[in-house]
Design brief:
Distance between the termini of chain A: 6 Å
Number of strands of chain A: 8
Oligomer: homotrimer
Number of helices of chain A: 3
Helix content of chain A: 10-25%
Radius of gyration of chain A: 16 Å
Strand content of chain A: 35-45%
């Protein structure tokens, strides 16, 4: 019998960093009791991203951070939208370069992630934020 | 009762610019009469993108445009695929750096967008184009 | 009658290159017998991407490769995560800049792709890999 359910996760961030929430998503899938289906994850913001990346060596996330900091420099004089600070426009651009929604099949009751894949909220602002993630589960 | 419907939107572009079509999508969702479900939006082109970005200050879109124009310069001698002009290959690269499909939950009859999220077609070519967007709605 | 099915494709790569698999996906959709629905494609890796791009002039893919090689240089001294070689961290960053999941409507028994859209696995590592792609089909 097909069914769907919707959930909201709130992730508190303190500064520019990665927050893994794979475990919270897996708990939602398990509680929904779906064996086969589809999970859609949508972040309701424009200055933070969702990212699937390696969950083994933490240096991968630090290198991602270093690369994006160089690619989209805070305080770049190119930007006019600076009302909220020098990290404001870079946060929007980092979001555009990555994504705010993910779609992941559910197979045998689990998210069909690869061995080294973790699901992260990537906060791009340097000050604390409360980030809302909407999760839609569909299947049987 | 689960049901699905499919729709096509055609967006006429004149030059490199953002075209918001959040309202048209919300109208489709409302007419389909879905309370709970999933909207999938697919752009059938490789030189324009779909982007969820801030719908408040228009300077954000202008800064996005400035940044991408600097990151992927028109007429860069690196490019060999130049048959359609100096904006041709940059348009493909901008599309690769962003996306052509989006998946957004429908909650209580509305797209589950954040307060400041708008859905844009981002035209990357400098001349007019007619862009087709396919919308798949699923739910009950 | 709504139904869903799940499939796995394994794509063998030899070096950094694009591998089109649109035809294999279309075969899966045809065999599943779906007329109207949604295909979700998820790559279970963090150093290769899924990309929808032009399937006509192969120079487009070569220019994409040239651009990304310049944007994210192999062996960049910025990177600390270098255990697997100088292409390791660039592969993670190229993946973050593109995507690992796609959602494409199925219309009249076919993937709703544009005329020039092909679906590619983009291998970012320079040595051979075996890449797993999970395909979730849903519809009626």
């Amino acid at each position: 019998m097909f069914r769907q359910s919707q959930h909201e996760l709130v992730i508190k961030t303190r500064d520019r960093a990665f927050h893994e929430f794979t475990g919270q998503l897996e708990t939602l899938v398990r509680r929904a009791g779906l064996k086969t289906g589809l999970a859609t994850i949508h972040l309701q913001h424009t200055s933070a991203s969702l990212l699937i990346q390696e969950n083994a060596d933490p240096e991968v996330r630090r290198d991602l951070e270093r690369f994006f900091a160089r690619l989209v420099p805070d305080g770049d004089p190119l930007f006019w939208h600076t009302a909220e600070g020098k990290d404001d426009m870079p946060a929007h651009i980092r979001t555009a370069l990555t994504t705010v929604n993910l779609s992941i099949p559910i197979i045998e009751g689990n998210l069909a992630l690869g061995t080294w894949q973790g699901i992260y909220l990537w906060e791009h602002r340097t000050r604390p934020h409360s980030r809302r993630v909407v999760v839609h589960l569909l299947g049987e």
